[in-house]
Amino acid sequence: MSDLTPSSPSTALFTDHYELTMLQAALAAGTAQRRSVFEVFGRRLPHGRRYGVVAGTGRILEMLRDFRFTGEEIDFLRSTGVVDAPTLDWLADYRFSGTIRGYAEGEVYFPGSPLLSVESSFAEGVVLETLILSALNYDTAVASAASRMSGAAGDRPCAEMGSRRTHEAAAVAAARAAVIAGFASTSNLEAGRRYGLRTIGTSAHSFTLLHDTERQAFAAQVDSLGKDTILLLDTYDVDTALDTAIEIAGPELGGVRLDSGDLGIQAHEVREKLDARGARNTKITVTSDLDEYAIAALQAAPVDAYGVGTRVVTGSGAPTASLVYKLVARQGAEGTWVSVEKASKSKASHGGIKQAVRSYDGSIATEESIGVPALPADFDGRALLVDLVVDGEIDDAFTGAEGVRRAQVRHAESVGELPRSAHRLQDGEPAIPTVYYSG
Amino acid sequence: MSDLTPSSPSTALFTDHYELTMLQAALAAGTAQRRSVFEVFGRRLPHGRRYGVVAGTGRILEMLRDFRFTGEEIDFLRSTGVVDAPTLDWLADYRFSGTIRGYAEGEVYFPGSPLLSVESSFAEGVVLETLILSALNYDTAVASAASRMSGAAGDRPCAEMGSRRTHEAAAVAAARAAVIAGFASTSNLEAGRRYGLRTIGTSAHSFTLLHDTERQAFAAQVDSLGKDTILLLDTYDVDTALDTAIEIAGPELGGVRLDSGDLGIQAHEVREKLDARGARNTKITVTSDLDEYAIAALQAAPVDAYGVGTRVVTGSGAPTASLVYKLVARQGAEGTWVSVEKASKSKASHGGIKQAVRSYDGSIATEESIGVPALPADFDGRALLVDLVVDGEIDDAFTGAEGVRRAQVRHAESVGELPRSAHRLQDGEPAIPTVYYSG
What we know:
- Chains A, B: InterPro entries: Aldolase_TIM, NAPRTase_N, Nic_PRibTrfase-Fam, Nic_PRibTrfase_pncB, Nicotinate_pribotase-like_C.
- The structure is a homodimer.
- Chain A is an alpha/beta fold.
- Chain A folds into 2 domains: about 15-125 and about 320-439, Alpha-Beta Barrel (nicotinate phosphoribosyltransferase), CATH 3.20.140.10; about 145-315, TIM Barrel, CATH 3.20.20.
- Helix content of chain A is about 35%, strand content about 20%.
- The first copy, chain A, contains 15 helices and 19 strands.
- A 7-stranded antiparallel β-sheet of chain A has the order 13-12-1-5-3-17-18. Chain A has a 6-stranded parallel β-sheet with strand order 7-6-11-10-9-8. In chain A, strands 16-14-15-19 form a 4-stranded mixed β-sheet, with no helix packed on it.
- In chain A, helix 2 packs antiparallel against helix 6.
- Chain A is globular.
- Chains A and B meet through helix 1, helix 3, helix 6, helix 7 and helix 8 of A and helix 1, helix 3, helix 6, helix 7 and helix 8 of B.
């Protein structure tokens, strides 16, 4: 009852039961070693969205390192009878030895874009389904929402502050995904530690309420954190708080934060008062239930920075990217590749190995061009699939803090290439069409 | 670049930056040791919901054990300058020594219900805000949705199968929360290991596609997993698949799964065919984008079990419970308790220490009765606040597999006491009103 934190850092049980029973049956049938290609894609974007942003790729590579069935995992599977002894033996030796290619993290995507492909034996690939989808579905949902928010914010920085509104480990991934998609910082300390992200924050209403007066609270904060701190104005009365703040910190006060009320009107009033007191460099941060629409509505208000919580960590109405992991090709008994796909009409998918290129008119993207299995040799455009794991060797450049920095650059460049319509927040069609070419 | 999995199992950095800067300022001002009560509550239920279900409490207790600022956490905070040296010294010695009371996990709740209260020094309580809210907000969102689904399913079991549609660690918490709220099982193996949950699953479309024919795939599955396995019928043509399935497994076939199309019509057709072939005990499981409404719509269809994915792990439209953690009382300089609350009109809250009781008419709940600070001594009803941590001592009975079992019982009993209107899926008011009594 007492040891709930598994002592093993293995990620191998972030897996659905059926992956292991399929493995068992395929091992017994002699089909487990057939070379296979699994592909991750989304059938559609969330309702009305113009584009999505791939995130989670680096985390998959980090977790793939620890995808090991150690004694602890094997003991659990044995004692619960999930699979038979030969399957346990196979799992105990598991090391992914295949090749994973995919859209670089931070890249934009559209319906049908082949975001990730896993080429390996069926056995090695089938057990990664849940781990891969969990990371991509959550992180991509957050990055896709965050990109719309940072786009609406323009040059004003957005801070991710939603840790409290999602699972504690998801919060770390959300901070990472938001920063990839243009956010400047996060409140989440673990994300700061793991990925070298800038963390921010000064005080909450509880700090003001702890003290006998707002004046005592502000004085305590300025004494300890310095005049360049950000004071929270709306615990009692904003006007009074503003007067007190400037009396205590003077015009060198770093910033003020507004967390309730009509933020646009208040920002104008607060800016006027700050300027009248000579506090022209004191910044205004707003933080109350913001999303991309609220940020856009504040474009004309004198706001310097946005703090975004709930809506970014829950994907602003689309809390999962609804990506799927499908077997699209496998070798037959005689060794030739066979494209495969499910026939049910309501979930049509495109079988087969794919090549993906983004086509341009000048510097503006015009089409997501997908060749099944390949585009013509002279096809013009930017290749979208990059090597992430080659024959089991993980490319570390996509992981950790470096991976985040690369993904930030990729995001900025890819969003910059999209046609203007991509930046409309209203519901509409994907910014560019996805076109299939059969080679 | 290579060591991304923190070697420390500490949960201490699942924390927002501002909690530590508040701590620093309060330590410097001499106010950090003031006794304080923080309270978790929701201002409202998700739109149209009749009740919510508390979950995450046990996980908070599990994580509280590991909430330690070890050398690794201190080094990060020092190197990034988050807080000053005296604050780091204080954190290095951190052990929660206060008292936490709350609604038992699995309990139902309403707007304003004081779900958790943390009584300690301000310093000890303020740093737990994000950890507590993350666990409660996510798990409660899932349990609240799951309870509506298991309610709509009645005696038919629901299986949680949504791991792939949420963050990989959130998936474990989601499985746990769903089972607390009436689900029978989960696909998630890590949840099985950590909490002793029943895990289930047999095969996906990829298993059929791996093989040269559907017949080969079914034969491989039945050979390895036995005749009581569940065969997936809709990779190609359901009718043909059903014939093949019965030819291979005979009428002893355990079950079939339908994952697309009009599930109600198909279930009727498949049931008829199964019965005609003598497979009267072969169960039908359906699994395509189900939520509480789809489950309710299938009540008249011959379905034996539901597999629910995306909608349960994303809270069926409410991916966070939007619970908040607020300072409601603290001692003043002279040692007397002072009720505190933020004055901003748009976020009215009820300050003060609270007592919570559920009132009944016979066996049916009629009111959530909240005394500030206490109800009259002769007030009738069931006390809702239980001791979870007393003077730093965690009650292990609320953690691990035992905690889940207790929470399942609590959920079933509490839901059973609600008036009938609680089980309507249509939008409406909370099933019982929340009434405040000032003592």
